[in-house]
Specification:
71 residues, alpha+beta, Alpha-Beta Plaits
Length: 71
């Protein structure tokens, strides 16, 4: 579990929830803590982004995994 004082950084965002969930799954499989932040409008889920955040200390690993898996 990450330290609550960690600084979290955005490593991915998409307008498609399923893409953010795939990224989250890949990161979790590689023991990277993940938070999804859904900024889509709650009525239609058509506008806005779903953002994926990881602790800053894990960001390089996260970027590598995202690029390695062509996400």
């Amino acid at each position: 579990m990450p330290n609550l004082s960690d600084t979290w950084v955005k490593v991915f965002s998409s307008g498609q929830l399923y893409l953010a969930e795939i990224v989250k799954g890949v990161l979790e499989e590689n023991e990277v803590p993940v938070i999804l932040l859904n900024k889509q409008a709650s009525i239609y889920n058509m506008f806005g982004e779903i953002e994926v955040y990881v602790p800053e200390t894990e960001s390089l690993k996260a970027y590598y995994l995202i690029n390695q898996n062509q996400l």
